[in-house]
Amino acid sequence: MDLSTFGSTVITKELGGQFLESGEVLNYPGIIKTTGIEFKGLMEKQLEFNEVKAKEGERVKKIEKIRNNFKIISDKGEYETKTVIIATGARPRKLNVPGEKEFARKGVIYCAVCDGPLFSEMDIVIIGGGNSALEAVDFTHKIANKIYLINIGKEFNAHEYPYRENWIL
């Protein structure tokens, strides 16, 4: 973690992000098995060890240019810095259908790379309509017994996918 070299501060609404929703984390380099909550604890320890300040629970309201620096205005304070890295993470789009919440992390998953291997040699349904759906197919097509791809839109909205010709679905 080279952030400590530069005297960095991490401003975040919630440290851990999407990892907090993970039941088991099995695919992070150097970590054999953990949970999302345990992983957040490891992140906090690493930040502390490397003397990186973490400002959790803050929302950035504005970024201004002042001289050769930037002024970050949050709901809890102001910071001046030479560089701003925006790392907003990702949140899966929910379908909002009956059963989705009930079976989340119990067979209904949002990350094929994270949880797909848990369902190897099984029939899998991938629901999507764009690049994420194709990436999920690409990741799981060699381990799944059978894949059904359901398009959530009127048209499939994805870029040309380079590996599509290798899929046998």
Number of domains: 2
What is the ordering of alpha helices and beta strands? Answer: EHEEEEHEHE
**CATH third-level topology of the largest domain:** FAD/NAD(P)-binding domain
Q: Hey, roughly how much beta strand do the residues contain?
A: 15-25%
How many E strands? 7
Main sheet: strand order: 3-4-5
Oligomeric status? single chain
Major beta sheet summary: 3 strands, antiparallel
**Average residue pLDDT:** 82
- Shape label: globular
| Unreliable residue stretches | none
CATH top-level class of the largest domain = Alpha Beta
The computed structural class is alpha/beta
Q: What is the CATH superfamily label of the largest domain?
A: FAD/NAD(P)-binding domain
Question: Based on the structure given, which CATH architecture of the largest domain is correct?
Answer: 3-Layer(bba) Sandwich
Radius of gyration based on Cα positions: 20 Å
Helix content: 10-25%
Beginning-to-end CA distance, first to last residue: 41 Å
How many distinct helices? Answer: 3
